[in-house]
Each structure stands twice: as C-alpha cells, then as structure tokens.
Amino acid sequence: MEKVSTSARLEARLPADIHALLKRAAEIEGRSLTDFVVTAARQAACRTIEETEIIRLSVEDQRHIAEAILHPPQPAPALRRAFKRRRELFGSV
Q: Is the pTM of this model over 0.70?
C-alpha cells in the first residue's frame, strides 16, 4: 500500500528584513516560524475567500431586496409569452 502524505511543502524566498520580522513575531507568540507563517497564511486565505463569497448589503439594499420579494413587479410581456410557450411545449407543471 502507498502511504498518502497529509502535508505539502511550500517554499518561499523572502527578503532578509521580512524573514527577521516574521521570526521576531513568531518568537513573541512563542511559536515556531513555520507555525506562525502557516497560521497567518491560513487566516489571510480564509479572509480573502470569505470576502469574495459573502455578499454584504447596506440596510437600504436589504430593504430593496425584501420589498422586491414581498411585492414583485408584474411580469413583462416577454416573460408572459415565454411562460405561455413553455406551457404549450411541456404542459402545465
């Protein structure tokens, strides 16, 4: 049986001042440089993904959406024709 690795390797070249900064921050928190960098990178990645997947609306925008859901506009003539055509083709569902 093949053993499946549960970790992956990431290498990066850093300017010496950035390396020193990261190392100092890790020491302050009492963690290894690897642990510090992995944790920080994971938090940044999660934050970036969250910012793109979650839609944030102002209170006014929320009201507009709620109003449209509660009181939708009348269907346009083209939409009525499309529904009529669908019924003709597929029957009522």
A: no
